[in-house]
Amino acid sequence: MLKRFLTFFGIVLLFNSCDTKDHQALTAFGVYCEMVANDAKPVAFHYPMHTEEVNALWNDFEGIAQDYDVALYREENLPNSLLFPDDIAKGKEVVLIYKGNRLHQYLQWKEDALVIESKDFKALEANSRRLGRLLGYSPKGINELLRKNSAYRDLTSFKVKEQTTHLYYADLEGAISFYKNSLGLHQKDSSTFQISSKGYIQLHPFDEKHTIKDPKSTAIALLTDELASWYAHVQREDIPIKYTYKPRVGGPHDGFVAIDPGGYLLEFEQFKQHPENELFMAVLSTVRPVKTKIADLDFHGTITWTYHDDMLKMQRFYEQKLGYELVADQGWTKIYQTTNTTFIGLVDEKRGMEDYADQKAVELEWKVSNFVGFRDYAKKYLIPFIQNDSILVGPERYTYRISPENQDE
Question: Which residues in the chain show pLDDT less than 50?
Answer without folding.
Answer: 1-2, 5-17
